[in-house]
Write a structure and sequence with these properties.
It is a peripheral membrane protein. The protein is mainly alpha-helical and 359 residues long. The strands form 4 sheets. It has a two-stranded antiparallel sheet with strand order 1-2. The chain has a two-stranded antiparallel sheet with strand order 3-4. Strands 5-6 form a two-stranded antiparallel sheet. The protein is globular, with a radius of gyration of 20 Å. The two termini are 35 Å apart.
């Protein structure tokens, strides 16, 4: 999506959806057409300061730049190259055809859940710290914005602005509203539209996908075949590592930097989200039948263990991922001040159990 400020055109990766959709339409207006700003309260606050700054060049001329580009570049350097939403979408895309299964009804909802997950992992949202919150189920606890710094990822920033300017709501309410699942016409504007197409275009900007036009009988549709197969294969390897190996070891890469906070927990959340989105099997296709069954059983256990707070690993006869509880406990111990954010992670995974029951 391009926005123009003081005569300057800025490219903000993965922006507004153009024609076509990454697979079938999202069932919630994720279809074809231009992205319109349907979310409420999205007008820029004039008190936020100028968007354009200037510095002196070598020849004495002033050079215009947007300070947000610098802050967003710094933000991206600390984060994985792909967001949780992009990883789940990439797992679901057919490599050569470049579209999702037309029969997948779960992925749209799961992707909205991944947006909340990503904001929690990046420290933007947390549970509202009230003593009474523990009397409510995890998905019904109220969340709030604790850091409104933009991330540079358009969908995340759009959701963050909505959460900042609206009334405070629960995890499940936000995921429902962003998915368009509401009878309240006053809140229909919270729906995030064209999420799959916008994520796919973000992956095109990042060099992972390319855009093609494919004819489907009576109409043309934009598809997004995989260009960088290494990115998708790295996700598959990580999934298989977590779900099939006795000792989980996650190698550092641009997709999962060594210094990233909650590396292991983030991967577990991605696996659970892919399971809820009904795309996990695409990462397990090279395994035999028995190995796949064990992997799905392990996913069920992970979803049960990490959809509650505090996290707790139940005793099991399964010999997969024996070191996971200890590694994740060490990650949490390094950031004790992030407890309310991790509570949001648990709440999102709890919401995913509703989709799990539909599989």
């Amino acid at each position: 999506m391009a926005t123009t400020t003081s005569g300057l055109t800025r490219r903000r990766g993965g922006g507004g959806g153009g024609g076509g959709a990454a697979g079938a339409s999202d069932g919630d207006a994720d279809g074809m057409g231009s992205r319109t700003n349907s979310s409420p309260n999205m007008v820029r606050d004039a008190s936020a300061g100028p968007e354009t700054s200037y510095e002196s060049g070598e020849n004495g001329h002033r050079i215009a730049f947007d300070p947000r580009d610098i802050s967003e570049s710094a933000e991206r350097s600390k984060q994985p190259k792909l967001t949780l939403m992009e990883e789940v979408l990439l797992l679901g895309l057919k490599d050569k055809q470049g579209y999702l299964s037309f029969w997948n009804d779960n992925i749209s909802y799961a992707l909205r859940g991944c947006i909340v997950l990503e904001l929690a992992f990046r420290g933007r949202v947390a549970m509202q710290k009230t003593p009474s919150r523990r009397s409510f189920p995890l998905p019904d606890r109220i969340i709030e914005v604790v850091d409104d710094t933009l991330t540079g990822e358009v969908l995340l920033d759009e959701a963050l602005k909505m959460m900042k300017t609206s009334e405070k709501m629960s995890v499940s309410s936000w995921i429902d509203l962003m998915s368009g699942e509401t009878w309240n016409l006053m809140k229909i504007g919270y729906q995030l539209k064209q999420v799959r197409e916008r994520l796919a275009k973000g992956l095109v900007d990042k060099g992972i996908l390319r855009t093609e036009k494919r004819n489907f009988l009576l109409f043309d549709m934009a598809t997004h075949p995989v260009v960088d197969s290494g990115a998708k294969e790295e996700i598959r390897r990580r999934v298989r590592n977590v779900l099939t190996q006795r000792t989980v070891v996650l190698n550092a890469s641009q997709w999962l930097p060594e210094g990233l906070e909650f590396r292991c927990l983030r991967t577990v959340a991605m696996v659970c989200a892919a399971y809820a989105a009904n795309v996990l099997e695409n990462a397990l296709s090279t395994l035999g039948h028995e190995a796949r069954e064990k992997a799905f059983n392990q996913t069920d256990e992970l979803l049960a263990d990490y959809s509650q707070w505090p996290f707790g690993r139940k005793a099991t006869l399964n010999d997969i991922g024996e070191n996971l509880p200890q590694v994740i406990a060490e990650e949490i111990a390094k950031a004790p001040e992030k407890e309310l954010q991790l509570e949001v992670v648990a709440a999102c995974l709890n919401v995913f159990t509703r989709l799990d029951s539909l599989l």
